[in-house]
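Two records follow; treat each independently.
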Amino acid sequence: MINKKEIIAKFARNEKDTGSSEIQVALLTERINHLTQHLKDHPKDFHSRRGLLKMVGQRKGLLNYIKQKDIIKYRDLIAELGLRK
């Protein structure tokens, strides 16, 4: 799992930016990937599965917001995180 500070530094708009939509999506993506691996090892962990689904929904909402505001930034973020094929 990548360090949270590294993700923030990579996706920040400026040096004081810690909570922009892009950073939130990147952090959620990292947590989703980590939890997906956990659920492969523990398939009956339904409480974590519910948390995973909530995170996926939250990320989807943030991505829709970014898409409405700036389609170019959205496409760059999708490419950077490898979310779509």
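The next record belongs to a different protein.
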Amino acid sequence: MLELVKGWTEVVATGVEVAAALIIALAALLALIRALVAFVRPSAQPDAQKESLRLELGRWLAVALEFTLAADILRTAIAPSWDDIGKLAAIAALRTLLNFFLQREIDGHRARGAEAAAREDGVSSGTAGR
């Protein structure tokens, strides 16, 4: 019975890793397409366009990292060795750091967008009264 559970857990963990690889591949492809479009048709704000592209790719990479963490948790749950536990700790630390810095960048991006919108509203309301 235990061997059956281990076998199925390994199959599920492998499936979750494949899902992570697909997420990374699709996110990279989407980022590549958006980057090519940015080269061909640059926006009025190229820095914002690049930052948006980078943040979107980062979000998808964070999602993929969650999947790999899930797969490692499954593997560690059925046959925990010190090597597996170390890998799990490293991935968890990496995921936590990535999410922390990504969230900081997203918050900064939102704040800059809100400031730009406020300036734009101030300019348009200032000119509307003239």
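Discussion point: Residues 2-128 form one domain. How would you locate this feature using only the token line?
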